[in-house]
Amino acid sequence: MVLTRVGRELPEIAATVEAFRTAARAGGTALEVIDVPDGHHGFETLDPVRARPAVRRAMRAVLGHLTG
């Protein structure tokens, strides 16, 4: 599973992301996190030019898991 995590997330959403990561670890789910330190919620649609490198990393990760 691949998760993008933004650094400028709303606190209430960031808490659910961390809860999800904790539950994934507890359940033995392999989780790859793509951090976008300067990103905000909806970064891929709100700022597509700056988001492009993170989106590409996430897509490569997903494709790698599907084809690997």
Report on this model:
It contains three helices and two strands, in the order βαβαα. It has 68 residues and is α+β, with helices and mostly antiparallel strands. A two-stranded parallel ribbon has the order 1-2. It has one domain. It starts with a strand and ends with a helix.
Break the fold down into its secondary structure elements and pairings.
Layout: E1 2-6, H1 11-26, E2 32-36, H2 43-46, H3 48-67
Parallel strand pairs: 1-2
Brief descriptors of the model:
68 residues, alpha+beta, two-stranded parallel sheet, 3 helices
Q: Helicity range of the residues? A: 55-70%
Rg (C-alpha, Å)? 13 Å
The total number of structural domains is 1
Structural class: alpha+beta
Shape call: flat
Q: Describe the largest sheet.
A: 2 strands, parallel
Number of strands: 2
The DSSP helix count reads 3
